[in-house]
Design brief:
By secondary structure, the chain is α/β, with parallel strands linked by helices. The chain folds into three domains: 156 residues, PAS domain (Beta-Lactamase), CATH 3.30.450; 168 residues, Alpha-Beta Plaits, CATH 3.30.70.270; 207 residues, TIM Barrel (Alpha-Beta Barrel), CATH 3.20.20.450. It contains 24 helices and 22 strands. Strand 14 and strand 15 form a beta hairpin. Helix 1 packs across helix 2, helix 9 crosses helix 10 and helix 15 packs parallel to helix 17. The N and C termini lie far apart (87 Å). InterPro entries: Biofilm_reg_signaling (IPR052155), EAL_dom (IPR001633), EAL_sf (IPR035919), GGDEF_dom (IPR000160), Nucleotide_cyclase (IPR029787), PAS (IPR000014), Rev_trsase/Diguanyl_cyclase (IPR043128). This is Diguanylate cyclase. Pfam families: EAL, GGDEF.
C-alpha cells in the first residue's frame, strides 16, 4: 500500500448513529445535504471509549426509531433503543425492509418520501404509520436523508412518535411560558402578549394598558420567616391579583416579587388606575402564615399604549414591548417615592431617556471614529503676563450637533464606563503635545490634565501614567494633575498613598475648583499638593461681592501659608486680573487671556506674539 494513500476503514455502528443523530435530529428539514455527512472514519469500533459511548447512547435513546437503510430499504443498522421501541427481534428485523413496517395503504406516501430524499439529497420528512410488533400502527414523523455510507447508497432514518412528541412539546411549551411557583404566565409569555395588544390597539385606534406590581421589601419576609413563608405569600399574592383582574386581562409573574396585569385594547387610564388601586388594597390585607399575621405593601407602575409608548411602529411585526419598558419606569418612580403608591408613566420622561440613550450610542461611536480632540487654555503669570503652562481640555466634535459641551458628555462617559479610556487618551495626547511644542521652540513649564475620581481610583492608573511618560519622553516634573477636593476626601488615606507614589515620579498636583468643597487646613497639609485653583464662581463677582473678596483673600493666605501656588480661574476682565494680582494671586486663567484653543491655533498665537512665554523660562 502506498504511504500517501488514504484507506477508509469500516465505520462503526456508533459512527453511523452519531451521523444520523447530527443530520436528523439537530438539523431542520432542508438544512442538511447528504454530502455534509462524513463518509470516512478513522476510528474503529473498539477505539470508542466508554466516556463517549455512554452519553452517545443516551442521545440515541432520545430518538424513538433510529436506523440506517440501504437503497432497497433493508435495515443495515438499528439502535438498541429502536429495537425496544419497534418490538421486533434484531435478527427478524434484519430480514425486513422499511416497506414491511409501513401499512400497505401508505406505501405510495413512503415511496414518494424516498423519491424526494433521493432526488433532493436533503432531509425530507412525512407523517406515516409504523407497525409495532405485528400488532398495531403508530403515527410517526419519519425523516430520511440520502447517504452513501461506505460507497453503498442508502438512507439515514429517524422516526418520532407524534403523539408522544406532541405531548412532550406541549408540556415543554407550558413550562417555558409559565411560572412554576404560581402557575401564572411568565415574562417570556408576557412579551408577545404585550406586542399583540399594542398591535391591536393601533389597529382599533384604542388604548392598551400595563400595570406592574412590585412587593415592597419582600426580602424581609424571607429573612424573618424563611423561604417557605415567602413562597406561600407569593402564591397568595398571585391569587389576589388574579381575583382583582378582569376578564380578558393577562396576569403574569415576571420576577421574584414582581407581577404584571396586561389590559387589552379598549382599556382607559381610568380602568388601569382603578385596577391599580384595587391591587394596592388587596395586597394591603393581612397575610397569614402558620398562625402569624403579616402585612405587605406594593408599588404600582402604570403605562398606556400608545400614549406612553412614543410613535407607532414603522412596520408591521416590528413592535417592541414599549409598554413594558414604560411601565417599568413608572414602577421605579413609585419605588423611589417610598412604595405603597401608584405612579403613571410621564410622557416627558420618554424624551429625556431617549435623548440620553442616543447620546450614549453616539459617545461609543465617537470613540470608534476618533471624534475627540484636545484644546488648550493658557495659564499666565499675574506679574509678567507670560504663559507658564496650559490646561488640556477635551472636546467632542459631533458630526451632527457640532461641539458637545464637556458638561454633557463627561458625566455620561463616567456613567457608562468610558471615562478611564478617554482620560488615558487625554493624558497621552497632552504629554505628546507638550513635547511637539518643544520641538518648534514653544517650551512651556507644564501641561495640566484633569483626572476624574473613577480614573484616579482605577488600579491601572499608575501604570497608565508611566506608560504615557515612557511613550512621550516628557519630564514628569512638567505634568500637573488637577483633582477635586471631593476626590481627596472620598478616601484620604488611599488618596495620600497614590499622590505620594505619583509625586515620587516628579508629578505635581493642583486642587481644582477650590473653595466649593469642604477641605480643612489640616487635610490640605497632609496631601502633597503644589497648586490651588480658585473656582470661577468666586472670581465672577469678585468686584461686587464683599463675601467673595473675603473668601479669595482667605484662600490666598491659605496658599501662602502652605507654600502653594494659586491660580484664579474664569478671569474675564482686566479689573478682575488687577485685583487678583493685588491680592497675591500667582497665576491667571480665563477668557481675558484666551479661550481654549486647538494646538495649531495656540502655536500661531505665540508666533503672532498675541501670547508670549513667561520671561523666567
Amino acid at each position: 500500500m502506498q504511504a500517501n494513500r488514504i484507506t477508509a476503514k469500516r465505520r462503526s455502528p456508533w459512527r453511523i448513529a452519531l451521523e444520523t443523530v447530527l443530520g436528523l435530529i439537530r438539523a431542520r428539514p432542508q438544512d442538511v445535504e447528504a454530502s455534509s455527512l462524513p463518509v470516512e472514519d478513522a476510528t474503529p469500533p473498539e477505539a470508542l471509549p466508554e466516556a463517549v459511548t455512554k452519553p452517545l447512547e443516551a442521545t440515541l435513546n432520545a430518538v424513538d426509531f433510529l436506523a440506517q437503510i440501504d437503497d432497497a430499504l433493508r435495515f443495515v443498522y438499528v439502535s438498541d433503543a429502536s429495537i425496544a421501541f419497534i418490538g421486533y427481534h434484531r435478527d427478524y428485523l434484519g430480514m425486513l425492509t422499511l416497506h414491511d413496517l409501513v401499512p400497505s395503504s401508505e406505501a405510495d406516501e413512503l415511496n414518494a418520501l424516498v423519491a424526494r430524499a433521493k432526488a433532493s439529497g436533503k432531509l425530507e420528512s412525512a407523517t406515516l404509520s409504523l407497525v409495532k410488533s405485528l400488532t398495531y400502527p403508530i403515527c410517526v414523523e419519519l425523516r430520511l436523508l440520502s447517504t452513501a455510507a461506505q460507497g453503498v447508497p442508502g438512507f439515514a432514518l429517524a422516526a418520532f412518535e407524534v403523539s408522544h412528541w406532541r405531548d412532550n412539546e406541549a408540556k415543554l411549551t407550558h413550562a417555558l411560558n409559565h411560572d412554576p411557583l404560581t402557575g401564572l404566565a411568565n415574562l417570556a409569555a408576557l412579551i408577545p402578549a404585550v406586542n399583540a395588544v399594542q398591535a391591536e390597539a393601533e389597529h382599533t385606534r384604542t388604548q392598551a394598558a400595563l400595570v406592574l406590581i412590585d412587593i415592597d421589601d419582600y426580602q424581609r419576609i424571607n429573612r424573618a420567616l424563611g423561604y417557605d413563608a415567602g413562597d406561600d405569600m407569593l402564591r397568595e399574592t398571585a391569587r389576589r391579583i388574579q381575583h382583582a383582574a378582569g376578564h380578558g386581562e393577562t396576569v403574569a409573574r415576571i420576577a421574584s416579587d414582581e407581577f404584571a396585569v396586561l389590559l387589552p385594547a379598549g382599556a382607559t387610564a381610568e380602568s388601569a388606575e382603578s385596577l391599580g388601586r384595587r391591587l394596592l388594597t388587596a395586597i394591603a390585607q393581612p397575610y397569614r402564615y402558620r398562625g402569624q399575621h403579616t402585612h405587605l405593601s406594593a408599588s404600582v407602575g402604570v403605562a398606556l399604549y400608545p400614549d406612553h409608548a412614543g410613535p407607532a411602529t414603522s412596520a408591521p411585526g416590528t413592535i417592541d414591548a414599549h409598554l413594558l419598558r414604560m411601565a417599568d419606569h413608572a414602577l421605579a418612580e413609585a419605588k423611589e417615592a417610598g412604595g405603597n403608591t401608584l405612579v403613571f408613566h410621564a410622557i416627558d420622561d420618554d424624551t429625556a431617556d431617549a435623548e440620553r440613550l442616543k447620546l450614549e450610542a453616539d459617545l461609543y461611536e465617537a470613540v470608534r471614529n476618533g471624534e475627540f480632540s484636545l484644546h488648550f487654555q493658557p495659564i499666565t503669570s499675574s506679574l509678567s503676563g507670560g504663559v507658564v503652562g496650559v490646561e488640556a481640555l477635551m472636546r467632542w466634535q459631533h458630526p451632527v450637533h457640532g461641539l458637545v459641551p464637556p458638561s454633557d458628555f463627561i458625566p455620561l462617559a463616567e456613567s457608562i464606563g468610558l471615562i478611564n479610556y478617554l482620560g488615558n487618551w487625554v493624558l497621552k495626547a497632552a504629554c505628546m503635545q507638550l513635547v511637539q511644542w518643544d520641538a518648534i521652540g514653544i517650551r512651556l513649564e507644564y501641561v495640566s490634565v484633569n483626572v476624574s475620581p473613577q480614573q484616579f481610583r482605577d488600579k491601572r492608573f499608575t501604570f497608565a501614567v508611566q506608560e504615557a511618560l515612557a511613550l512621550t519622553g516628557l519630564d514628569p516634573k512638567r505634568l500637573v494633575f488637577e483633582i477635586t477636593e471631593s476626590l481627596l476626601m472620598h478616601d484620604p488615606e488611599e488618596a495620600t498613598r497614590l499622590l505620594e507614589t505619583l509625586r515620587a515620579f516628579g508629578i505635581r498636583f493642583a486642587v481644582d475648583d477650590f473653595g466649593t468643597g469642604y477641605s480643612s487646613l489640616a487635610y490640605l497639609q497632609r496631601f502633597p499638593l503644589s497648586k490651588l485653583k480658585i473656582d470661577r464662581s468666586f472670581v465672577e463677582n469678585l468686584l461686587t461681592s464683599r463675601n467673595n473678596r473675603a473668601i479669595v483673600s482667605a484662600v490666598v493666605g491659605l496658599a501662602q501659608s502652605l507654600g502653594l501656588e494659586l491660580v484664579a480661574e474664569g478671569v474675564e476682565t482686566e479689573a478682575q486680573r488687577d485685583l487678583l494680582t493685588e491680592m497675591g494671586c500667582d497665576h491667571i486663567q480665563g477668557w481675558l487671556i484666551s479661550h481654549a484653543l486647538p494646538s495649531e491655533e495656540l502655536a500661531r498665537s505665540f508666533k503672532s506674539n498675541s501670547l508670549f512665554l513667561h520671561e523666567a523660562l
